[in-house]
Write a structure and sequence with these properties.
Blueprint (H helix, E strand, L loop, with lengths): L5 E6 L3 H10 L6 E7 L3 H11 L3 E2 L3 H6 L5 E4 L6 H10 L3 E4 L7 H14 L3 E3 L7 H11 L6 E11 L18 H17 L3 E9 L10 E8 L3 E8 L1 E12 L3 E5 L8 E7 L2 E8 L4 H13 L9 H20 L3 E2 L1
Parallel strand pairs: 1-2, 1-4, 2-3, 4-5, 5-6, 7-10
Antiparallel strand pairs: 7-11, 8-9, 8-15, 9-10, 11-12, 12-13, 13-14
Length: about 325
């Protein structure tokens, strides 16, 4: 007998939900959007009417306790992730939480421990793990296409001054500037494609007149397991760009736009400067695949790719990056 779809409710509904999640749910096979909550209830009522969302919850508690919700998808500002997650877990709900997972690794560890203690599924919405570009790179690196990885880099730049998410420069709500907002995607992408973890971080960063107490531009040098040296660069002041590149003992693999879901991505493999392979993939279904994977995992099926433990490790890397910026020294996780 066919199972009914897993019912998600979005807690902290905002720009990200409208731009990315609402288009993804109708394409899902195992997931459906059953409700939402946002602080501005009048806006929430309008959103539910506009997008035909069945349940418009008046409070966080009402959403988390609802029998019409199986999964709480937390998309609230970073500073609210801990309390929102713990509330959902207390009501027996599985939780998928946006990145960065928390305001510190300590908070992330508390959230993950609470989920483990309750026996509830807990994942991080590192959606790029469901991008076909990163999947292809991971598979080919594992198969030895470029030999043993030695150097890696990931870049994510965007013009934050044009962002609809005004809270991302508020240090009371956001973990940081682009380090926490998109640098975490770069860190996680490199961990995913390489199958390695971060050991230490050395950070250069700067603020500007528009960034408040958070950074505007940053460069992270990371030591990773597997004898890999990696660089993450991120800026909130340049046109959009993303890049993932891995240098191995036998070749180099480059994905220009490797983290985008908005257009096809070309991945090029070179040996001695000559192109030996070129593939084009489309990441447009990445959010749908993430949602369905979480739903299947909840029903006892396949493993969800971005676990609470992954979220904790990413937060440890972010904490080390920020600490290094402030201390001027390399910081170990």
């Amino acid at each position: 007998m066919t199972q009914s779809p897993v019912r998600f409710a979005i807690l902290g509904f905002g720009h990200h939900a409208i731009r990315r999640l609402l288009p993804a749910f109708p394409k899902c096979e195992h997931s459906t959007l059953s409700g939402m909550w946002r602080r501005d209830h009048a806006a929430a009522l309008a959103n539910c009417a506009d997008y035909k969302i069945p349940h418009c919850f008046a409070t966080r508690e009402e959403l988390c306790s609802s029998p019409d919700v199986d999964v709480v998808f937390i998309t609230s500002p970073d500073a609210m992730h801990r309390d929102d997650t713990l509330l959902a877990l207390r009501h027996g709900k599985a939780v998928l939480c946006e990145k960065p997972l928390a305001m510190s690794a300590t908070q992330a560890e508390e959230m993950n421990a609470a989920a483990n203690a309750a026996g509830l599924l807990f994942g991080v919405a590192q959606n790029f793990r469901y991008n076909r570009s990163l999947e292809w790179m991971r598979q080919q690196i594992t198969a030895g296409l470029i030999g043993r990885p030695q150097l890696a880099r990931a870049e994510y730049c965007y013009p934050a001054t044009n962002s609809a998410r005004k809270w991302i420069i508020d240090a009371t709500l956001a973990y940081g500037g682009p380090i926490g907002d998109v640098g975490v995607h770069c860190i996680d992408a490199l961990r995913f494609v390489l199958g390695e973890d971060v050991i230490s971080v050395d950070t250069l960063a700067r603020k500007d007149a528009s960034s408040g107490k958070v950074e505007a531009v940053a460069s992270l040098q990371m030591e990773m397991t597997g004898d890999v040296f990696a660089t993450v660069t991120t800026s909130a002041r340049t046109p959009y760009r993303s890049l993932v590149e891995i240098n191995g003992s036998d070749g180099v693999m480059t994905a220009e736009g490797g983290l985008t879901v908005d257009r096809p991505v070309e991945i090029v493999v070179r040996r001695a400067g000559e192109v030996v392979e070129r593939v084009t993939v489309d990441n447009g279904d990445g959010y749908t695949r993430m949602l369905d994977s979480f739903a299947v995992a909840l029903r006892g099926g396949s493993h969800f790719a971005a676990t609470g433990e992954d979220g904790v490790h990413n937060m440890q890397a972010l904490d080390a990056a920020i600490k290094s910026w402030r201390s001027g020294s390399r910081e170990r996780l």
